[in-house]
Here is the input.
Amino acid sequence: MDDFVALGKDFPHTKFYNVRGNVDDYGDSERLETFEGVPIYMTHIKQNIHPDAKIVLYGDTHAPALYVNSGITYMDPGSICKDYGFRTFGLIDVFEDEYTCEIKFFDSLVL
Here is the structure.
């Protein structure tokens, strides 16, 4: 949660969404947000999926995963933290009811 708060301070004109994890004291346990007509359900543990979701984001495993099941895209972006072996994050591009999802490896980025 400290990272989430810091991001908000560093980028005050950007909207951030958080979902409470196992050790977090505050934040929503789940949420549904719609971006350009695409409903994205965010939760820590992948269970009780919202019936309107086109994309389900979860993070309990900290292991990157991306797959489609019954027309719903599921993504665990992994972890940007080195504690889990390699650093990954998820990227979702939404434009006019269409979307793409991908997992990126942070260490392979050229900065």
About this structure: The chain has one domain: 2-108. The domain at 2-108 is CATH 3.60.21.10 (Purple Acid Phosphatase; chain A, domain 2). Helices lie at 2-10.
